Amino acid sequence: xxxxxxxxxxxxxxxxxxxxxxxxxxxxxxxxxxxxxxxxxxxxxxxxxxxxxxxxxxxxxxxxxxxxxxxxxxxxxxxxxxxxxxxxxxxxxxxxxxxxxxxxxxxxxxxxxxxxxxxxxxxxxxxxxxxxxxxxxxxxxxxxxxxxxxxxxxxxxxxxxxxxxxxxxxxxxxxxxxxxxxxxxxxxxxxxxxxxxxxxxxxxxxxxxxxxxxxxxxxxxxxxxxxxxxxxxxxxxxxxxxxxxxxxxxxxxxxxxxxxxxxxxxxxxxxxxxxxxxxxxxxxxxxxxxxxxxxxxxxxxxxxxxxxxxxxxxxxxxxxxxxxxxxxxxxxxxxxxxxxxxxxxxxxxxxx
Length: 352
Ligand code: MRU
Known about the structure:
By secondary structure, this protein is α/β, with parallel strands linked by helices. Helices cover 41% and strands 16% of the residues. Helix 1 packs antiparallel against helix 2, helix 4 runs antiparallel to helix 5 and helix 5 (119-149) packs across helix 6 (175-184). The relative contact order is 0.12. Residues 50-53, 95, 162, 164, 168-169, 174, 201, 240-242, 252-253, 318 line the site of 5-S-methyl-1-O-phosphono-5-thio-D-ribulose.
Protein backbone atom coordinates (compact mmCIF):
# COMPACT_ATOMS: atom_id res chain seq x y z
CA UNK A 1 0.00 0.00 0.00
CA UNK A 2 1.34 3.35 -0.96
CA UNK A 3 0.06 5.26 2.07
CA UNK A 4 1.55 2.69 4.44
CA UNK A 5 -1.94 1.79 5.73
CA UNK A 6 -3.59 -1.36 4.47
CA UNK A 7 -7.35 -0.94 4.12
CA UNK A 8 -9.46 -3.11 6.46
CA UNK A 9 -12.14 -3.90 3.90
CA UNK A 10 -13.39 -6.93 5.81
CA UNK A 11 -11.90 -8.57 8.89
CA UNK A 12 -12.55 -11.18 11.52
CA UNK A 13 -12.93 -10.04 15.12
CA UNK A 14 -14.01 -12.09 18.14
CA UNK A 15 -17.29 -10.10 18.12
CA UNK A 16 -18.05 -10.86 14.47
CA UNK A 17 -17.19 -9.79 10.92
CA UNK A 18 -16.29 -6.12 10.65
CA UNK A 19 -16.53 -4.42 7.28
CA UNK A 20 -16.39 -0.95 5.82
CA UNK A 21 -19.85 -0.05 4.52
CA UNK A 22 -19.14 0.74 0.86
CA UNK A 23 -22.67 2.04 0.24
CA UNK A 24 -22.04 5.25 2.14
CA UNK A 25 -18.50 6.01 0.95
CA UNK A 26 -17.06 8.53 0.25
CA UNK A 27 -19.24 10.84 2.34
CA UNK A 28 -19.10 8.63 5.42
CA UNK A 29 -16.47 6.12 6.56
CA UNK A 30 -18.58 3.73 8.61
CA UNK A 31 -17.59 0.26 9.83
CA UNK A 32 -20.36 -2.29 10.43
CA UNK A 33 -20.15 -5.30 12.70
CA UNK A 34 -22.03 -8.37 11.45
CA UNK A 35 -22.70 -10.67 14.39
CA UNK A 36 -24.62 -13.38 12.48
CA UNK A 37 -24.02 -15.15 9.17
CA UNK A 38 -27.36 -13.79 7.95
CA UNK A 39 -26.05 -10.26 8.44
CA UNK A 40 -22.94 -11.09 6.42
CA UNK A 41 -25.11 -12.51 3.62
CA UNK A 42 -27.24 -9.37 3.68
CA UNK A 43 -24.11 -7.17 3.53
CA UNK A 44 -22.99 -9.04 0.38
CA UNK A 45 -26.44 -8.90 -1.23
CA UNK A 46 -26.88 -5.18 -0.58
CA UNK A 47 -23.26 -4.44 -1.59
CA UNK A 48 -22.13 -3.05 1.76
CA UNK A 49 -19.19 -5.30 0.84
CA UNK A 50 -18.55 -5.85 -2.88
CA UNK A 51 -15.87 -6.77 -5.40
CA UNK A 52 -15.23 -10.41 -6.33
CA UNK A 53 -12.36 -11.29 -3.93
CA UNK A 54 -13.86 -9.27 -1.04
CA UNK A 55 -17.19 -11.09 -1.22
CA UNK A 56 -15.33 -14.42 -1.23
CA UNK A 57 -13.47 -13.42 1.94
CA UNK A 58 -16.67 -12.06 3.55
CA UNK A 59 -18.55 -15.28 2.75
CA UNK A 60 -15.77 -17.39 4.29
CA UNK A 61 -15.88 -15.30 7.47
CA UNK A 62 -19.70 -15.48 7.47
CA UNK A 63 -19.60 -19.27 7.22
CA UNK A 64 -17.13 -19.45 10.12
CA UNK A 65 -19.36 -17.13 12.15
CA UNK A 66 -22.45 -19.25 11.40
CA UNK A 67 -20.73 -22.50 12.28
CA UNK A 68 -19.45 -21.09 15.57
CA UNK A 69 -23.03 -20.15 16.51
CA UNK A 70 -24.34 -23.59 15.48
CA UNK A 71 -21.73 -25.30 17.66
CA UNK A 72 -22.71 -23.06 20.61
CA UNK A 73 -26.41 -23.85 20.05
CA UNK A 74 -25.76 -27.61 19.87
CA UNK A 75 -27.32 -27.92 16.39
CA UNK A 76 -26.86 -30.75 13.93
CA UNK A 77 -23.69 -29.41 12.32
CA UNK A 78 -23.87 -31.07 8.90
CA UNK A 79 -27.40 -29.71 8.31
CA UNK A 80 -26.63 -26.27 9.76
CA UNK A 81 -23.37 -25.94 7.81
CA UNK A 82 -25.05 -26.79 4.50
CA UNK A 83 -27.80 -24.25 5.17
CA UNK A 84 -25.22 -21.53 5.95
CA UNK A 85 -23.29 -22.30 2.74
CA UNK A 86 -26.48 -22.18 0.66
CA UNK A 87 -27.46 -18.84 2.19
CA UNK A 88 -24.08 -17.40 1.18
CA UNK A 89 -24.29 -18.91 -2.33
CA UNK A 90 -27.68 -17.25 -2.92
CA UNK A 91 -26.38 -13.71 -2.36
CA UNK A 92 -24.87 -12.80 -5.76
CA UNK A 93 -24.47 -15.02 -8.85
CA UNK A 94 -21.69 -13.64 -11.06
CA UNK A 95 -18.40 -13.45 -9.14
CA UNK A 96 -17.04 -16.99 -9.02
CA UNK A 97 -14.73 -16.10 -6.10
CA UNK A 98 -17.80 -16.35 -3.85
CA UNK A 99 -18.38 -19.99 -4.86
CA UNK A 100 -14.66 -20.72 -4.78
CA UNK A 101 -14.50 -19.56 -1.14
CA UNK A 102 -17.65 -21.51 -0.16
CA UNK A 103 -16.23 -24.69 -1.76
CA UNK A 104 -12.97 -24.21 0.09
CA UNK A 105 -14.79 -23.84 3.43
CA UNK A 106 -16.88 -26.95 2.61
CA UNK A 107 -13.74 -28.98 1.87
CA UNK A 108 -12.15 -27.88 5.16
CA UNK A 109 -15.32 -28.71 7.10
CA UNK A 110 -15.43 -32.23 5.65
CA UNK A 111 -11.70 -32.78 6.11
CA UNK A 112 -11.71 -31.70 9.78
CA UNK A 113 -14.82 -33.72 10.62
CA UNK A 114 -13.37 -36.78 8.92
CA UNK A 115 -10.38 -36.42 11.25
CA UNK A 116 -12.80 -36.71 14.20
CA UNK A 117 -12.59 -33.06 15.26
CA UNK A 118 -15.81 -31.59 16.70
CA UNK A 119 -17.25 -28.73 18.74
CA UNK A 120 -15.21 -25.61 19.40
CA UNK A 121 -12.13 -27.09 17.78
CA UNK A 122 -14.05 -27.63 14.54
CA UNK A 123 -15.38 -24.06 14.67
CA UNK A 124 -11.84 -22.77 15.24
CA UNK A 125 -10.53 -24.75 12.24
CA UNK A 126 -13.10 -23.00 10.03
CA UNK A 127 -12.20 -19.57 11.47
CA UNK A 128 -8.54 -20.34 10.71
CA UNK A 129 -9.41 -21.33 7.14
CA UNK A 130 -11.30 -18.07 6.57
CA UNK A 131 -8.38 -16.11 8.04
CA UNK A 132 -6.06 -17.96 5.63
CA UNK A 133 -8.26 -16.99 2.65
CA UNK A 134 -8.07 -13.37 3.83
CA UNK A 135 -4.27 -13.39 4.24
CA UNK A 136 -3.74 -15.20 0.93
CA UNK A 137 -5.84 -12.63 -0.90
CA UNK A 138 -3.51 -9.84 0.22
CA UNK A 139 -0.42 -11.81 -0.86
CA UNK A 140 -2.11 -12.71 -4.15
CA UNK A 141 -2.95 -9.09 -4.94
CA UNK A 142 0.61 -8.00 -4.18
CA UNK A 143 1.93 -10.65 -6.59
CA UNK A 144 -0.55 -9.55 -9.29
CA UNK A 145 0.74 -6.03 -8.65
CA UNK A 146 4.35 -7.08 -9.14
CA UNK A 147 3.63 -8.87 -12.43
CA UNK A 148 1.30 -6.19 -13.74
CA UNK A 149 3.54 -3.24 -12.89
CA UNK A 150 6.02 -4.50 -15.50
CA UNK A 151 3.43 -3.74 -18.19
CA UNK A 152 2.82 -0.17 -17.04
CA UNK A 153 5.51 2.27 -18.20
CA UNK A 154 6.76 5.25 -16.22
CA UNK A 155 4.57 8.27 -17.03
CA UNK A 156 1.55 6.13 -18.00
CA UNK A 157 -2.06 7.23 -17.78
CA UNK A 158 -4.14 4.19 -16.87
CA UNK A 159 -7.89 4.06 -17.43
CA UNK A 160 -9.87 1.83 -15.07
CA UNK A 161 -13.53 0.93 -14.77
CA UNK A 162 -15.45 0.18 -11.56
CA UNK A 163 -13.40 -0.49 -8.42
CA UNK A 164 -10.91 -3.34 -8.43
CA UNK A 165 -9.01 -1.87 -5.54
CA UNK A 166 -8.34 -2.39 -1.85
CA UNK A 167 -12.08 -2.06 -1.25
CA UNK A 168 -12.83 -4.91 -3.65
CA UNK A 169 -10.32 -7.29 -2.05
CA UNK A 170 -8.88 -7.99 1.40
CA UNK A 171 -6.90 -4.77 1.17
CA UNK A 172 -4.56 -4.08 -1.78
CA UNK A 173 -6.47 -4.53 -5.01
CA UNK A 174 -6.04 -6.25 -8.36
CA UNK A 175 -6.24 -3.54 -11.06
CA UNK A 176 -5.45 -0.85 -8.48
CA UNK A 177 -2.87 -3.19 -6.94
CA UNK A 178 -0.98 -2.99 -10.24
CA UNK A 179 -1.16 0.80 -10.11
CA UNK A 180 -0.04 0.80 -6.46
CA UNK A 181 2.88 -1.53 -7.26
CA UNK A 182 3.97 0.64 -10.19
CA UNK A 183 3.86 3.74 -7.95
CA UNK A 184 5.79 1.88 -5.23
CA UNK A 185 8.46 1.17 -7.88
CA UNK A 186 8.81 4.93 -8.35
CA UNK A 187 6.85 5.23 -11.59
CA UNK A 188 4.75 8.33 -12.16
CA UNK A 189 1.25 7.06 -12.88
CA UNK A 190 -1.97 8.96 -13.46
CA UNK A 191 -5.34 7.25 -13.36
CA UNK A 192 -8.53 8.04 -15.27
CA UNK A 193 -11.43 6.52 -13.32
CA UNK A 194 -14.75 5.87 -15.08
CA UNK A 195 -17.58 6.85 -12.73
CA UNK A 196 -19.26 3.44 -13.40
CA UNK A 197 -23.01 3.98 -13.54
CA UNK A 198 -25.28 3.00 -11.95
CA UNK A 199 -23.64 2.06 -8.63
CA UNK A 200 -20.83 4.61 -9.10
CA UNK A 201 -18.00 2.42 -7.81
CA UNK A 202 -15.53 4.52 -9.81
CA UNK A 203 -16.72 7.91 -8.57
CA UNK A 204 -17.35 6.86 -4.98
CA UNK A 205 -14.74 4.18 -4.31
CA UNK A 206 -11.86 4.24 -6.82
CA UNK A 207 -11.54 8.02 -6.57
CA UNK A 208 -11.66 7.82 -2.76
CA UNK A 209 -9.05 5.12 -2.33
CA UNK A 210 -6.62 6.58 -4.88
CA UNK A 211 -6.85 10.04 -3.31
CA UNK A 212 -6.22 8.40 0.08
CA UNK A 213 -2.98 6.99 -1.39
CA UNK A 214 -2.13 10.31 -3.10
CA UNK A 215 -2.19 8.70 -6.55
CA UNK A 216 -3.28 11.30 -9.12
CA UNK A 217 -6.77 10.45 -10.36
CA UNK A 218 -9.13 12.18 -12.79
CA UNK A 219 -12.78 11.18 -12.59
CA UNK A 220 -14.66 10.93 -15.91
CA UNK A 221 -18.18 9.89 -16.88
CA UNK A 222 -18.34 6.49 -18.59
CA UNK A 223 -19.33 8.20 -21.84
CA UNK A 224 -16.03 10.14 -21.94
CA UNK A 225 -13.64 7.18 -22.21
CA UNK A 226 -13.64 7.07 -26.04
CA UNK A 227 -12.98 10.80 -26.26
CA UNK A 228 -9.85 10.59 -24.10
CA UNK A 229 -8.60 7.51 -25.96
CA UNK A 230 -9.01 9.34 -29.27
CA UNK A 231 -7.05 12.30 -27.89
CA UNK A 232 -4.16 9.91 -27.12
CA UNK A 233 -4.38 10.47 -23.35
CA UNK A 234 -4.71 6.82 -22.31
CA UNK A 235 -1.64 4.52 -22.23
CA UNK A 236 -3.47 1.36 -21.22
CA UNK A 237 -6.64 0.07 -19.59
CA UNK A 238 -6.50 -2.13 -16.48
CA UNK A 239 -9.69 -3.65 -15.03
CA UNK A 240 -10.61 -6.42 -12.60
CA UNK A 241 -12.81 -9.47 -13.26
CA UNK A 242 -15.67 -11.37 -11.67
CA UNK A 243 -15.40 -14.58 -13.69
CA UNK A 244 -13.09 -15.64 -16.51
CA UNK A 245 -14.10 -18.52 -18.78
CA UNK A 246 -11.61 -21.05 -20.19
CA UNK A 247 -11.24 -19.12 -23.48
CA UNK A 248 -10.50 -15.83 -21.67
CA UNK A 249 -13.96 -14.25 -22.04
CA UNK A 250 -14.23 -12.05 -18.95
CA UNK A 251 -17.24 -10.92 -16.92
CA UNK A 252 -16.67 -7.62 -15.16
CA UNK A 253 -18.72 -4.57 -14.19
CA UNK A 254 -21.27 -3.42 -16.77
CA UNK A 255 -19.58 -1.07 -19.22
CA UNK A 256 -16.27 -2.95 -19.30
CA UNK A 257 -17.07 -4.41 -22.74
CA UNK A 258 -17.64 -0.91 -24.13
CA UNK A 259 -14.25 0.22 -22.77
CA UNK A 260 -12.53 -2.86 -24.24
CA UNK A 261 -14.10 -2.29 -27.67
CA UNK A 262 -12.94 1.33 -27.62
CA UNK A 263 -9.43 0.35 -26.52
CA UNK A 264 -9.26 -2.12 -29.41
CA UNK A 265 -10.40 0.59 -31.85
CA UNK A 266 -7.57 2.84 -30.62
CA UNK A 267 -4.94 0.06 -30.31
CA UNK A 268 -4.58 0.63 -26.57
CA UNK A 269 -3.57 -2.42 -24.48
CA UNK A 270 -6.50 -3.77 -22.44
CA UNK A 271 -5.39 -5.73 -19.36
CA UNK A 272 -7.50 -7.83 -16.98
CA UNK A 273 -6.11 -8.32 -13.45
CA UNK A 274 -7.50 -11.17 -11.37
CA UNK A 275 -6.49 -13.95 -8.96
CA UNK A 276 -6.69 -17.51 -10.30
CA UNK A 277 -9.72 -17.97 -7.99
CA UNK A 278 -11.60 -15.86 -10.60
CA UNK A 279 -10.99 -18.50 -13.31
CA UNK A 280 -13.94 -20.74 -14.11
CA UNK A 281 -12.50 -23.34 -16.45
CA UNK A 282 -15.74 -25.35 -16.26
CA UNK A 283 -17.15 -22.80 -18.72
CA UNK A 284 -15.73 -22.97 -22.22
CA UNK A 285 -16.84 -19.44 -23.12
CA UNK A 286 -18.34 -16.42 -21.42
CA UNK A 287 -21.81 -17.29 -22.74
CA UNK A 288 -22.37 -19.51 -19.71
CA UNK A 289 -21.56 -16.84 -17.11
CA UNK A 290 -24.66 -15.93 -15.06
CA UNK A 291 -25.25 -12.18 -15.17
CA UNK A 292 -26.84 -10.60 -12.12
CA UNK A 293 -29.83 -8.31 -12.66
CA UNK A 294 -30.21 -5.70 -9.97
CA UNK A 295 -33.06 -3.45 -8.83
CA UNK A 296 -34.38 -0.79 -11.29
CA UNK A 297 -34.05 1.82 -8.53
CA UNK A 298 -30.24 1.71 -8.93
CA UNK A 299 -30.82 3.25 -12.37
CA UNK A 300 -33.80 5.51 -11.70
CA UNK A 301 -32.33 7.11 -8.57
CA UNK A 302 -29.06 8.84 -7.82
CA UNK A 303 -28.88 8.75 -4.05
CA UNK A 304 -32.32 9.72 -2.71
CA UNK A 305 -33.20 11.64 -5.90
CA UNK A 306 -35.34 10.09 -8.64
CA UNK A 307 -34.01 10.97 -12.11
CA UNK A 308 -36.50 9.09 -14.33
CA UNK A 309 -40.29 8.82 -14.64
CA UNK A 310 -41.59 6.22 -12.16
CA UNK A 311 -43.40 4.24 -14.89
CA UNK A 312 -40.35 3.81 -17.18
CA UNK A 313 -39.19 0.28 -17.87
CA UNK A 314 -35.57 -0.33 -16.77
CA UNK A 315 -32.87 -2.92 -17.49
CA UNK A 316 -30.05 -3.19 -14.97
CA UNK A 317 -27.57 -6.00 -15.68
CA UNK A 318 -24.69 -5.57 -13.21
CA UNK A 319 -22.02 -7.17 -15.43
CA UNK A 320 -21.12 -7.71 -19.07
CA UNK A 321 -18.76 -10.14 -20.78
CA UNK A 322 -15.75 -8.87 -22.71
CA UNK A 323 -14.86 -11.26 -25.54
CA UNK A 324 -11.33 -12.67 -25.26
CA UNK A 325 -10.25 -11.16 -28.62
CA UNK A 326 -10.36 -7.71 -27.02
CA UNK A 327 -8.08 -8.65 -24.12
CA UNK A 328 -4.32 -8.09 -24.46
CA UNK A 329 -3.33 -10.09 -21.36
CA UNK A 330 -4.73 -11.51 -18.12
CA UNK A 331 -2.53 -10.82 -15.10
CA UNK A 332 -2.76 -13.35 -12.25
CA UNK A 333 -0.66 -14.09 -9.16
CA UNK A 334 0.90 -17.02 -11.05
CA UNK A 335 2.00 -14.97 -14.02
CA UNK A 336 0.67 -13.22 -17.10
CA UNK A 337 -1.49 -15.11 -19.59
CA UNK A 338 -1.38 -14.03 -23.24
CA UNK A 339 -3.56 -15.33 -26.08
CA UNK A 340 -4.42 -18.03 -26.91
CA UNK A 341 -5.97 -18.00 -23.43
CA UNK A 342 -7.40 -21.51 -23.66
CA UNK A 343 -3.84 -22.84 -23.45
CA UNK A 344 -2.23 -20.21 -21.21
CA UNK A 345 -5.00 -20.07 -18.58
CA UNK A 346 -5.11 -23.85 -18.34
CA UNK A 347 -1.35 -23.88 -17.73
CA UNK A 348 -1.63 -21.22 -15.00
CA UNK A 349 -4.52 -23.06 -13.33
CA UNK A 350 -2.51 -26.28 -13.31
CA UNK A 351 0.46 -24.50 -11.65
CA UNK A 352 -1.10 -24.62 -8.15
O1 MRU B 1 -20.89 -5.20 -8.38
P1 MRU B 1 -19.50 -5.11 -7.82
O2 MRU B 1 -19.15 -3.76 -7.31
O3 MRU B 1 -19.25 -6.21 -6.82
O4 MRU B 1 -18.57 -5.39 -9.08
C1 MRU B 1 -17.18 -5.33 -8.91
C2 MRU B 1 -16.43 -5.52 -10.16
O5 MRU B 1 -16.98 -5.69 -11.24
C3 MRU B 1 -14.94 -5.59 -10.02
O6 MRU B 1 -14.30 -5.04 -11.14
C4 MRU B 1 -14.52 -7.06 -9.88
O7 MRU B 1 -15.27 -7.67 -8.87
C5 MRU B 1 -13.08 -7.21 -9.59
S1 MRU B 1 -12.68 -6.68 -7.96
C6 MRU B 1 -11.03 -6.97 -7.68
